[in-house]
């Protein structure tokens, strides 16, 4: 059989942003015996250093293949991460923050679903979290469950009984729990970038919501934070 036609192997497609959460998910999937295929997106985000971080994490964790897909979500705008005219907030606010990117996880999971079907992978991993997170609607368990139902309705594999599972192993973990789990699995968090406005060298601002959650997680876990700041 060819590499892509053999569905007997335990394969997984994993959304890898280059941040703390997704790096942990790759390690978790490896620990469960999956051959890991990672996917990142160059979608017009201002924090492009995360793409280099994703490549470092993929290489360090020995994934089978790392794919970067180009999108133009900044053509839609509507988010501080894709529209330079909208400032990244440096203090928590009320409601869904302006760093929410419209439909981002729906789009990302859809492309991961397509690749999974081609690879013969039955599992798609995403590092969403509903405990220590920014309040994005597409990080909730209800969204993950609904997408899984859609995936099995909308694909040839699903119709033929080879159903997909959308796995979100961090869903109910605190950021400290995620850090502790990753440390046990040997994740090198010094390779990751979480900041929404990291510079080209991957140095963090230390002020945005993502930086705050990351720093609090390391502190609560009692683990030294390798984040570099500008």
From TrEMBL:
Its EC number is 6.3.4.20. Zn(2+) binds at residues 195, 205, 208, 211. InterPro entries: QueC, Rossmann-like_a/b/a_fold. Its cofactor is Zn(2+). CDD domains: QueC-like (cd01995). ATP binds at residues 16-26. It comes from the Bacteria. It is an enzyme of class 6 (ligase). Pfam families: QueC. Pathway: Purine metabolism; 7-cyano-7-deazaguanine biosynthesis. The keyword Transcription regulation does not apply. Belongs to the QueC family. PANTHER family: 7-CYANO-7-DEAZAGUANINE SYNTHASE. Catalyzes the ATP-dependent conversion of 7-carboxy-7-deazaguanine (CDG) to 7-cyano-7-deazaguanine (preQ(0)). This is 7-cyano-7-deazaguanine synthase. It comes from Pseudomonas kilonensis.
């Amino acid at each position: 059989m060819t590499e892509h036609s053999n569905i007997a192997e335990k394969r997984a497609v994993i959304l890898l942003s280059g941040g703390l959460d997704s790096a942990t998910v790759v390690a978790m999937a490896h620990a469960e015996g999956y051959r890991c295929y990672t996917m990142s997106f160059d979608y017009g985000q201002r924090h492009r250093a995360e793409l280099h971080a994703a490549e470092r994490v993929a290489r360090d964790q020995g994934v089978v293949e790392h794919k970067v897909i180009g999108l133009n979500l900044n053509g839609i705008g509507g988010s501080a991460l894709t529209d330079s005219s909208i400032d990244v907030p440096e203090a928590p606010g009320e409601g869904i923050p302006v760093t929410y990117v419209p439909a981002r996880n729906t789009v990302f999971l859809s492309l991961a679903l397509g690749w999974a079907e081609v690879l013969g992978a039955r599992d798609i991993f995403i590092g969403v979290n509903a405990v220590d997170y920014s309040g994005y609607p597409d990080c909730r368990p209800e969204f993950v469950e609904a997408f899984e139902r859609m995936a099995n309705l909308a694909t040839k594999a699903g119709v033929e009984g080879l159903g997909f599972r959308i796995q979100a192993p961090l869903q109910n973990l605190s950021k400290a729990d995620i850090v502790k789990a990753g440390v046990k699995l040997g994740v090198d968090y010094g390779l990751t970038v979480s900041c929404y406005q990291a510079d080209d060298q991957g140095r963090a601002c230390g002020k945005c919501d993502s930086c705050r959650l990351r720093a609090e997680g390391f502190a609560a876990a009692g683990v030294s934070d390798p984040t570099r700041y500008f």
